[in-house]
Design brief:
7-stranded parallel beta sheet, Rossmann fold, about 40% helix, alpha/beta, 14 strands, binds adenosine monophosphate
Length: about 375
Amino acid sequence: MTFKELNLIQPLLGPLDKMGYTQPTPIQEQSIPHLLAGSDIFGCAQTGTGKTAAFALPILQMLDAQRIGPRSGIKALILAPTRELAIQIHEHLVQYSENLNITSTVIFGGVNQHSQVQALRKGVNILIATPGRLLDLMQQGFVRLNTVTHFVLDEADRMLDMGFIHDIKKIIPKLPEQRQTIFFSATVAPDIKKLADTILKKPVSVEVTPVASPSELVDQSIFMVDKNHKRTLLKHLIKEHNIQQGLVFTRTKHGADKVVKELNKSGVTAEAIHGNKSQNARERALNGFKNHSIRILVATDIAARGIDVDKLGYVINFELPEVAETYVHRIGRTGRAGTEGVAFSFCDEEEVQYLKGITKLMKRDIKKVAHPFNN
Ligand code: AMP
C-alpha cells in the first residue's frame, strides 16, 4: 500500500516523501480512507504507531478541498494532554502542510499567553491545544469554536489520568453538533468508552498493536543487578554500546535527577525531564536531545509521554515499572515506525515481581544478559 493508493493529494505526497515516509503505517492505512469519507473514528493506538499523520493528513486534505483562507476561522481543533505532545503535533502539521494554504498554531499553559493570542488574531485554521489553556483563552474571548468541522481528542486515556475531564466537558458543548470527531486512546477502559460514546457518532473502530504485543523490532534485554550497582551498569552500557541518543526511565523525579548528576560527572551529557522542571527547562532538554547536544534524556513516565524523536535507538529502564503495560509503552518509544531499537532493563531483587508481570503480559521471556557488576 502506498500513500497515493490512499488517495492523498499530490501536495501532501511531496512532504511525506521528504520526511522519508515510504509507506503508510497500519493505523494510517486503516484510518485515512474512513476519515476522508467523513466518518468518526474511535482509534486504539499508542504513540509511535503514526497516529498523528493518520488524522492530520485527511484533515489537511479535507480542509484544502474547502479552499479556506486565514479568515475562515478555526476549522479543526486538536486537543492533546501535554505541551510536548501538542508542540509535536503542530511541528508535524507544519511539515505536512508545507504546500497548502492552511494556517495552524499551538497553545498550551505554563507560558505567557501573549504570543499565542497574537497568533490567534492572525487567523488560524487548525488549532492544537492543551485543554486548560484553551478553556482559559475561550473564556477571555480569544477563541471561538463555532466554525470547527473536525475535532480530534488525542491520548484520551492520558487526558483522563491528568484530570482534564472537566475541562473537556466544558469545551465540547462549544463545538458545532455537525462535525467529524476523531478519538484516540492507547487503552480502552470503561470510562474511556463512556466518554467516547458521548462525543462520537457512529464511529468506525480502528485498532493497532494491542498493548500486549510490543514491536518485534525492539531487541529487549534484562540485566539482573543490585540497586546500588545500577548507575555503574548504566555508565558501562552507554560506553560499551556507544549510545549517542538514549531515553532512560526512572520511577521518581528524584531518581531522575540523581542519574543525571552521575552521568554528567562521568562526562556524558544528560538532562532530566519531569514535572518539577519548568516548561522552558523541559523544552530546552528536549531540543538538546533532538539536536544531539544531549545524549541521554532521563524521564519519568508522565513526562515521557509525547516525547517524539525519530529513530530513537535505545530505551533503558533504570527501574522497572510496577504496571506491566507501562513497560510496553516505554519500549514502544524505540523501534517505532519501521526502525530497529534496543531496550535494556535493569531489575533488582525487589523488582523481580514486576518482571514476572511484564513477561506474563507479553507472553514471552526477555533474555537475561550477564554483566560484570553483580554483587
Ligand atoms: P506518532 O505515533 O504519530 O507519534 O508517530 C511516530 C513517529 O513515526 C513519528 O516520528 C512520525 O514522524 C513517524 N511516522 C509516522 N508515519 C510514518 C510513516 N508512514 N513512515 C515512517 N515514519 C512515520
